[in-house]
Write a structure and sequence with these properties.
Length: about 160
């Protein structure tokens, strides 16, 4: 049994993960429109991961005998004027998700819900990796120094992301 309060937070976290995917697909739309198909591909892959995160929480809740409910996804509400901005927004978004996961983890520990706390360890690790990846994208973009040829090569590299 997991605590009711925790089940509610995990349901909300499903929505946040789905929203992350929705947001990243909008980033991909922007990059497609900017002829940066490699960047677009990278964010399509990331959106797929977000969907998997949502389903991982859904399965956990169902296995614990809890009801799962989805709510409406918010408009991504993004409007970019240059290709670096989505990368910065992605890092900020991952930091927001990390705080959200950490809050649920701390609440689970407060309520002695060790099953959920243990389940969330995977997400804590994953968030560390996602923040690192988001920072690396910014670093690589900055290394390109605005040069079209360097951006072209970075786009090619990002287009090779497999998972
Ligand atoms: Fe689900 O890890 Fe990103 O947001």
């Amino acid at each position: 049994m997991i605590k009711r309060e925790i089940a509610k937070l995990l349901n909300e976290q499903i929505n946040k993960e789905l929203h992350s995917g929705y947001l990243y697909m909008e980033f991909a739309n922007y990059y497609e429109d900017s002829n940066l198909q490699g960047f677009a591909h990278w964010f399509v892959k990331q959106a797929g991961e977000e969907y998997e995160h949502a389903m991982r929480i859904r399965t956990f809740l169902l296995d614990a005998g809890e009801k799962v409910t989805f709510t409406q996804l918010a408009d991504p509400g993004v409007n970019f004027s240059d290709p670096k901005t989505p990368l910065i927004e992605a890092l900020k978004h991952e930091q927001f998700i990390t705080r959200s996961i950490n809050d649920i983890y701390e609440k689970a520990l407060d309520l002695k819900d060790h099953l959920t706390a243990n389940f969330l360890q995977w997400f804590i690790q994953e968030q560390g990796e996602e923040e690192t990846n988001a920072q690396h994208l910014i670093d690589k973009f900055e290394l390109s120094g605005g040069s079209a040829s360097a951006l072209y090569l970075l786009d090619k590299e990002l287009g090779r992301r497999e998972d």
